[in-house]
Amino acid sequence: MSSPRVSILLPVYNSASSLKETLDSLLTQSFSDFELLVVDDGSTDQSSEILAACTDSRLRVLKNPERLRLAGALNRGMREARGELIARMDADDLAHPERLASQVAYLDAHPEIVLCGTWTRHFGSKVKKQERYPVGHDAIRAFVLFNCPFAHPTVMFRKNVFLEHDLFYDGSFYPTEDYELWTRLVHHFPVANLPQVLLDYRVHAQSMTGSDWENMDAQACRLMKQQFADLGVTLDDERIRLHRDMGMARVKATDFEATRIHVIDLLQRNAQAAFCPEKAFAEELRERWFHVCMNVRGIGSTRSTRFADNDIWQGVRVPMGKRMLIKASVMRENRK
User: Fold this and answer.
1) pLDDT of the chain along its 336 residues, tens only?
2) Among the listed residues 196, 177, 183, the one whose alpha carbon sits nearest the alpha carbon of residue 231
3) Measured between alpha carbons, how far is 103 from 93 in angstroms, rounded to an integer?
4) Which residues contact 130 (CB under 8 A, 6 or more apart)?
5) What string of DSSP letters covers 60-105?
6) Do the bridges between strand 130-131 and strand 94-95 make them parallel or antiparallel, or are there none, so unpaired?
7) d(Cα 58, Cα 35) in Å, to the nearest integer?
8) Other Cβ atoms closer than 10 A to 278
9) Per the domain annotation, does 207 fall within a domain?
10) Are residues 256 and 139 in the same domain?
């Protein structure tokens, strides 16, 4: 029996409410040379029955005798996958019919690329939006220093590279296991995102608790500090906290000036040490600075004047449209 081109790796834990719809979106893909490898991580609802009722010969189910959680389930699936390529999927999302075909075609045309993700469209909540991720490798290398550069359930990657280089998930970084893995990947291997919406990402109103968000923040800071250190850049805990808040566009008025100095310092350090592609890193930093200036409150017109700081733009033309957006935001705040 020949091996399939693709193994769709789908971890399942108590996903009965959405599993059938997800399976349907995968089993009707225009690209058909795949196995659907489900890792049932100890489900106690009707998930097992839904899987058992599926008669498609491409479905293969691995049942964990005890729950391994997401990282453990994915690592088992990666080791047991038969396909040359592994496509991630979650049990509550929906793949567009051309998802696999588009990613396989891209990886075939670009043999140097180790992993590619896609853009997503949110559904299941009142807020409908597209999530657009950085496309090219340099942009992704810059973005990963601020946030996760891929929608996890969209990625497709070359199994042999991951196995050969021990690129498995580290469960100690829950709930940011995927982000941690990407920080080990993107600075060493070419990666990309397709600028197409190929997955509908289900948003749950209660998907994460407050403690989860606090843990995510703590783990993200841990990752950023480690990632910068690996690139030869030492940042103390206070700088890392500023960096995380800047990446999330939630800088407080009391931290605004310190954040401006942080941006200038990173620009200067990268110009000297080239720890990240210079043009992409500068563009990403300036984009983050724009969102800081748009969202900070309580400093009046200072955010408008500081946005165009010469030390940040360094001779590059300041986007007039963004400058006007900040001025308009300041005016709205002053009227309140």
Assistant:
1) 689 999 999 999 999 999 999 999 999 999 999 999 999 999 999 999 999 999 999 999 999 988 999 999 999 999 999 999 999 999 999 999 999 999 999 999 999 999 999 999 999 876 778 999 999 999 999 999 999 999 999 999 999 999 999 999 999 999 999 999 999 999 999 999 999 999 999 987 545 444 577 889 999 999 999 999 999 999 999 999 999 999 999 999 999 999 999 999 999 999 999 999 999 999 999 999 999 999 999 999 999 999 999 999 999 999 999 999 999 999 999 887
2) 183
3) 17
4) 119, 120, 121, 122, 197
5) EEEE-SS--HHHHHHHHHHHH--SSEEEE--TT-EE-TTHHHHHHH
6) unpaired
7) 5
8) 14
9) no
10) no
Whether 145 and 138 have beta carbons less than 8 Å apart is answered as no
Same domain, 81 and 21: yes
Run of H or E including 195: strand 191-202
Tokens representing 104? 């396989």
275, 232 in Cβ contact below 8 A?
yes
CB 158 within 8 A of CB 189: no
Q: d(Cα 185, Cα 114) in Å, to the nearest integer?
A: 9
- 221 falls within a domain: no
The pLDDT tens digits of the residues spanning 163-214 come to 999 999 999 999 999 999 999 999 999 999 999 999 999 987 545 444 577 8
What CATH number has the domain bearing residue 105? 3.90.550.10
- Distance between CA atoms of residues 336 and 56, nearest Å: 60
Number of domains in the chain: 2
Residue 261: give the domain boundaries: 235-335
Q: Are 144 and 183 in contact (CB under 8 A)?
A: yes
Torsion of CA 218, 40, 89, 123, to 10 degrees: -80
Pull the structure tokens for residue 79: 């080791």
Residue 139 inside a domain? The answer is yes
pLDDT in tens, 104-137: 999 999 999 999 999 999 998 767 789 999 999 9
329 and 275 part of one domain:
yes
Question: Are 34 and 144 in the same domain?
Answer: yes
